[in-house]
């Protein structure tokens, strides 16, 4: 068996134990296990929760190697497997009973000072003021001005990210087969000067969302990509749109998005897990 597997785990004791157990079983099955991610790696096994998954893809700049997750965290939306399913996963993987789900990402370009900075996320981009201050933005989509925004911030999510921060602030859950962006306001204020929508806007993926800050009121701006925060000064323009980077998630025939949504948000166990065969 020529396939090589890279195991990435967080530092929690449970995750480290599962990683050691998983490595032993993979080697016993005739698979190679490496401690470095290279171009020759065939699969990444990510052990932890969704935070560990996000840490992985940002640390390795959105790798093209297929990823499957073993959930030792809470919700585990990206982490499909339970530790009790490792044997079943290996059997299915050896018999090529898996397929890949291609997940789109979102890219943010920031014109700050004399530089242009880039950030990429799989869940969302969030634009906020400094230290929780109200932010003021002129919002354009394509060539059309949509609104003058005043509030805590604006979140732009991918379909994959619609179940994350977006959902917690009242955004809609979006089927991952759709190619779109969702712009959700965070505590918007409507005044005589600033008028904005109070619900999410669903936007096509083939155009850019442009945010022009009022630099007189917002000298510093925070941009969050999947929870990773950077602060910028003298921001003249921000654009957000689909990125060319993709993430490839390993799925099995029993996977169905809306079943998972129901299990995670409506009928899951107290620890966020759902016991289900891979099928």
TrEMBL record:
Domain of life: Bacteria
Location of the protein in the cell: Cytoplasm
GO terms for cellular component: cytoplasm
EC code: 2.7.1.23
Catalyzed reaction equations: NAD(+) + ATP = ADP + NADP(+) + H(+)
Keywords of the record: ATP-binding, Cytoplasm, Kinase, NAD, NADP, Nucleotide-binding, Transferase
Main location: cytoplasm
Cofactors: a divalent metal cation
Active site annotation, chain numbering: 50 (proton acceptor)
A molecular-function term among this protein's GO annotations: metal ion binding
Record: residues binding NAD(+): 50-51, 123-124, 152, 160, 163-168, 187
GO biological process, one term: NADP+ biosynthetic process
InterPro entries: ATP-NAD_kinase_N, ATP-NAD_kinase_PpnK-typ_C, NAD/diacylglycerol_kinase_sf, NADK
Alphabetical list of Pfam families matching this protein: NAD_kinase, NAD_kinase_C
HAMAP family according to UniProt: NAD_kinase
Family statement: Belongs to the NAD kinase family.
Function: Involved in the regulation of the intracellular balance of NAD and NADP, and is a key enzyme in the biosynthesis of NADP. Catalyzes specifically the phosphorylation on 2'-hydroxyl of the adenosine moiety of NAD to yield NADP.
Official protein name in the record: NAD kinase
Source organism (scientific name): Eubacterium pyruvativorans
Lineage: Bacteria, Bacillati, Bacillota, Clostridia, Eubacteriales
